[in-house]
Specification:
Rossmann fold; eight-stranded mixed β-sheet; 2 domains; five-stranded parallel β-sheet; binds adenosine-5'-triphosphate; alpha/beta; binds magnesium ion; 13 strands
Length: about 425
Amino acid sequence: MICVLLLASGAAWESQALESLSGAPDVVVLKRCVDVDDLLASAGTGQAHVVVLSLDAPGLDASAVAHLRRHAVRPVAVVPDPAHGETVARAGRLDIATLVPVAGLASLAEAVTSVEDLGDTRIRDELDVQPPEPSASGTHRVVAVWGPAGAPGRTTVATAVAAELARRRASTLLVDADPWAGSVSQHLGILEEVSGVLSAARLAGSGQLRERFTSVRRAVDEHLSVLTGLPRADRWVEVRAGAVTDILELAREQAHVVVDTGFGLEQDRGSDFGAAPARNTMTLESLDVADEVLVVGSADPVGLSRLARGLVELRELTGGLPVRVAVNRMRPTLGWSEKDIAGMVEGFARISGLHFLPDDRAAVDRALVGGRSLLEVGETALTRGMAGLVDAMFPATMAAAADRRTGLRRRRAGRARRR
Ligand SMILES: Nc1ncnc2c1ncn2[C@@H]1O[C@H](COP(=O)(O)OP(=O)(O)OP(=O)(O)O)[C@@H](O)[C@H]1O
Ligand SMILES: [Mg+2]
């Protein structure tokens, strides 16, 4: 089955292209992308093979096409006249070889299934893209969000991923298991009287966790609840070894679980001759239970060198299991391309997916100051990047996301018609 993305950018041929593709038995249209950022985020999920696009899409440049190819997404351009000199030159500059004339859209599916057949699969193999593992208990998954020291954005990403999952109507529990600087409740504006994780750890110790788990979770909305973190960093000693494992295993029976962890990975022995837990136990147990680890790194020079070291440390800890990496706070002023970073990151770990999240101080500040998740302050390239992460880690929720977008579009169109 060939999975196709579509970026028509408002061109009149979109519906004709959809018609041609939906008639082909071995082609499925994964998504109609709204713009180039949306396309790049969707390509990052590693699920698409081909994109059918317009050469006139704003922001479509050679680096965008290179990003597509890195994710083994082959471009097919629909053009008014493939023999037109200017069109040929533009396609050449973008490194797009397959051009389909608007007048020949009936054969689009054929062009899609025969495009650059095996040429680019090499890149996908190098990236070692694998479908996400099914969870140990049915359909729910535990994703541990980890990242090195220096506040690369673990909590921002964990919170946004959990909120996006909930927006797709998937029951989701966000767990703050950072033993150094728990901050999920501040990010979401939750005024906590009691710490969820401390209460749950106590219940796990007394064998009452299953019975009373609901009472220690804070509901944010119909689909999202939160287990808030430590109220003070020195309270980590109260979370005995094994408690976080018990909590996450139980949570997975009930919902998807996103865990915000701390940066430290050292397995320092606790004081008191091993009776007390070690400081990083909450993080280490989260990584151990997780079906997938999402590593967040910061795109600046210090952040990237910490990310590289962190990936090596993590590899030693997890025995080289593939990890997903999100490089956060990407910005043009740093002067390196996604390709430069991909080359660097792939040298340090087996990567199951590489994502780039733009720096967007304004959106993040609006969310933080309002105590709301990023999604609640409006759609931006950053929220689209987060949605791409969720598509990749929880592919079963993609249909709900698409339904919701179509619903929103229909409602908007309805409102516009009524005006
Ligand atoms: N994509 C982004 N664009 C702009 N600012 C960001 C972005 N991601 C995170 N930030 C900001 O970076 C800072 C650190 O983010 P966050 O608290 O998520 O990091 P962390 O890794 O959880 O850090 P800590 O070590 O404190 O747990 C925050 O001020 C956050 O608003
Ligand atoms: Mg944090």
